[in-house]
Specification:
With 225 residues, the protein is mainly alpha-helical. It has one domain. It contains eight helices and three strands. Strands 1-3-2 form a three-stranded parallel β-sheet. Helix 3 packs antiparallel against helix 6 and helix 4 runs antiparallel to helix 5. The chain is extended. It starts with 13 loop residues before the first strand and ends in a 14-residue tail after the last helix.
């Protein structure tokens, strides 16, 4: 989450889970207050995310139902092929025949997966859109919670970075409260043509690279007689 690379207004530093507490003793000693947050828990428990998950079942009911039906059809199509393949293995069929059956199964599975992804693409974009709206408010929520708790240093818990934190240090609920105030609910349906941040950044980088002028060829030196 690139937004968390920005400094806190008070502390000037948010440490990610990859940096354990022991790695920053000097910063911890200088800080007047220390807080620990679990960002994944904050996002998962946020009102915006939970409300969006409920609304999505209705807004995208047609796509979800279509995907469920197609998945059932694919399962019914593949089941006899699985049975035939297992029977061929038990009967010691030739290696070439087994490879052909396996290739057919893999081809159907891959095509079915691509088809399901296409059907559910609006649902996936909706999830990404809601997630991005939440992430955009997290920095501010952390800053406001840290200010109210008089905390100078905030460390992210999870993924083994913080193994233990006493209850007074855990400001996850405080940040969640601030986030729910800043973003009570999120827009569920992204605007036409919207793409997740990662894809937008990739496209911007590619466009910037293409816009760079080509290097001019080096002038040729005149040859003497």
């Amino acid at each position: 989450m690139k937004t968390f690379l920005k400094p806190l207004m008070m502390a000037g530093l948010i440490l990610t889970a990859s940096a354990p507490i022991a790695a920053v003793p000097a910063a911890a000693q200088q800080a007047q207050g220390l807080g620990v947050v679990n960002l994944n828990a904050i996002i998962a428990r946020s009102n915006a995310l939970q409300t969006a998950e409920q609304q999505r079942q209705t807004t995208y009911a047609a796509q979800i139902q279509q995907a469920t039906q197609r998945q059932q059809q694919l399962a019914a199509q593949l089941q006899p092929l699985y049975t035939q393949f297992q029977a061929a293995q038990q009967s010691n069929a030739g290696q070439q025949a087994l490879q052909q059956q396996a290739a057919q199964i893999q081809q159907i599975e891959a095509a079915g997966q691509r088809e399901l992804q296409t059907i559910l693409q609006p649902v996936a974009l909706s999830r990404a859109y809601v997630q991005e709206q939440i992430e955009e408010q997290l920095d501010r929520a952390i800053q406001q919670a840290a200010t109210k708790k008089r905390i100078d240093l905030v460390i992210e818990a999870g993924q083994g970075g913080v193994l233990y934190a006493a209850a007074p240090l855990n400001i996850t609920q405080d940040v969640l409260t601030e986030l729910n105030t800043l973003l009570p609910s999120a827009q569920l349906v992204p605007p036409q043509g919207w793409l997740p941040r990662e894809i937008r950044e990739q496209q911007a980088a590619a466009a910037a690279q293409q816009a760079q002028p080509a290097a001019a060829p080096a002038p040729q030196q005149p040859t003497g007689r």
